[in-house]
Amino acid sequence: MSRVFSTARSAAKALHAIAGASLVFVMLLTIMDVVLRGFGKPIPGTYELVGYAGGIAIGLAMPMTSWRRAHVYVDAFVLRLPAAARLVLHVATRLLGAGLFAVLAWNLVLLGLDLRRSGEVSPTLELEFYPVVFGLAAAAVLQAIVLLCQAAAAQRGENE
């Protein structure tokens, strides 16, 4: 099981690095577009590129964010529960989340296949949508795996 944990963590770290690079790209592109716009030379397709990169940044950051438990967590209600109930709630919510992300991944794959088949592209730069959608599907699969790892660790009494 520790091999699954370390592989999932390594994959989450890699996606997190790509998400960070995507965010830096958005920042630099936006700054350059604003500066060049002042000289009457805006960067064509900035809106599209920011949209693609923003989706990548958000989608690929989720697995590592969950791994680190850096997401918003409202524990006012949960802390009042007995330890056994907290454990059941923790495991159940992780399993439910894993199921939801598995369904999301499946639907993203179907959407990606449909977009590839139709040849749909962005309006200005004519970039294909499906590679980004497939990347987000992979991130959703990894997110489901991370949640399953957290559920398994909690069940064993570990705090991975």
Structural features, described:
This protein has 160 residues and is mainly alpha-helical. The protein contains four helices and no strands. It is elongated, with a radius of gyration of 19 Å. Helix 1 (2-38) packs antiparallel against helix 4 and helix 3 packs antiparallel against helix 4. It has helices at residues 2-38, 46-67, 83-118, 130-155. It has one domain (2-69, 79-155). The protein starts with a helix and ends in a 5-residue tail after the last helix.
Give me some keywords for this one.
mainly alpha; 160 residues; 76% helix
Helices and strands, with pairings:
Blueprint: H1 2-38, H2 46-67, H3 83-118, H4 130-155
Helix pairs in contact: 1-2, 1-4, 2-4, 3-4
Quick gist of this model?
The protein has helices at 2-38, 46-67, 83-118, 130-155.
- Supply the number of structural domains: 1
Globular, elongated, flat, extended or rod-shaped: what is the shape?
elongated
- Global mean pLDDT: 94
> Could you state the oligomeric state of the chains shown?
single chain
